[in-house]
Amino acid sequence: MSAARARPGRAARLRAVLVVVPVHDEEALLPACLAALRRAVARLAAERPELEVSVSVVLDGCTDGSAEVVRASGLPSLVTPRLGVGAARAVGVDAAEHGLPEPAVHGQACRPGTARTWLVCTDADSEVPEHWLVRQVELAEAGADVVVGTVRPRVEDLSPGRAAAWLANHEPGRANGHVHGANLGVRLSVYRATGGFAPLPEHEDVALVEAARRAGARVVPDAAGEVLTSARLVGRTPGGYARHLREDLVPDDRTA
């Protein structure tokens, strides 16, 4: 079944929003992440109180104090053995979906409700803007099946060379179309029809977007909901944004 046939209409108003955050040993950065997410949820609730919102924070094999940080935030969480980011995101999607008040809409892509449910992901080392969820909903209701949002690092934490290189290649307000798990939205019917997040150690976000494109989904790049992410050069996966900052900007910069 194609993604285009998995939902009744691209511009239908949403009924629910799922939010998934995978976490692996992010005790230091997680408080800011979750505080920002709570602000975004509150903003959406204020502007669209009819929408159901279900959050799932996945503690993926954490050995530090991440669980205590989530507990203090009051956000829903679940604990898994170390699965890796792809499988952790997938588990989080299932948990968030089952957190909705109408179990009848869960599961298969063609059941009522999945086309009107929007899934958004961010990462535990990132801070979403307050209007992030509102912006995702606007784009979904305007016809997007997938929203590929931009990210920016904490430039002040980069070395001077890398900071200059990043700023020289980043045009504020321009959507570059790069896929980041820290700023990704997808219609739940499309997510289900394309197989969801694969159990990959990295690039599960890219694989999902590529599958959605092949299925005929409408992929919309966006810069209006840009997410702030860490500027670390060694991340929780071998590649990802940390590798980009480390190797693609100024590989020979020794001031990092």
Task: List the topology elements.
Layout: E1 16-23, H1 30-47, E2 52-60, H2 66-73, E3 77-80, H3 85-98, E4 117-121, E5 126-127, H4 132-141, E6 146-153, H5 160-168, E7 184-187, H6 188-193, H7 204-214, E8 219-229, H8 240-249
Parallel strand pairs: 1-2, 1-4, 2-3, 6-8
Antiparallel strand pairs: 4-7, 5-8, 6-7
Helix pairs in contact: 1-2
What does this structure look like?
- This protein is of the alpha/beta class.
- The protein has a single domain (12-249), classed as Spore Coat Polysaccharide Biosynthesis Protein SpsA, Chain A (Alpha-Beta Complex).
- It is built from 8 helices and 8 strands.
- The chain has helices at residues 30-47, 66-73, 85-98, 132-141, 160-168, 188-193, 204-214, 240-249, and strands spanning 16-23, 52-60, 77-80, 117-121, 126-127, 146-153, 184-187, 219-229.
- β1 (16-23), α1 (30-47) and β2 form a beta-alpha-beta unit.
- The longest helix has 18 residues, at 30-47.
- The radius of gyration is 17 Å and the shape is globular.
- The termini are far apart.
- 45% of the residues are buried.
- Mean pLDDT is 87; it is low at 1-9 and 103-112.
